[in-house]
Amino acid sequence: MDIREAYLNFFASKGHEIIPSAPLVPNDATLLFTNAGMVPFKSIFTGEVPRPTPPIRTSCQTCIRAGGKHNDLDNVGYTARHH
To answer: Residue 69 sits in which domain range?
Structure first.
């Protein structure tokens, strides 16, 4: 079992609904890439859609951080995680 599966299994065992990882190129004109785990939940945070009841959801989101404090692009080719 990998860490992603262990993470999701833990929350599923606590009754959380697993939300699939969103695409790296989101269907959102305000974002170039999915850059955070909250992107699939953005419409809930902004109030565009009502908060689910019960509000227990989890995901393990693939994302790209292409600037700012955590720039993954600077690490491509230099670490085993960034390839």
So the answer is: 3-75
Q: Say if 81 falls within a structural domain.
A: no
| DSSP 8-class letter at 64 | -
Which residue has tokens 């509000």?
A: 55
Cβ–Cβ contacts within 10 Å for residue 41, how many?
Answer: 19
The ranges of the chain with pLDDT < 50 are none
Joined together, the tokens standing for residue 40 give 């699939």
Rounded CA gap, 81 and 27, in Å? 26
Q: Domain count for the chain, please give it.
A: 1
pLDDT score recorded for residue 14: 95
- Phi, psi (5° rounding) for residue 76? -60, 125
Tokens of 54: 């019960």
What is the per-residue pLDDT for 81?
A: 61
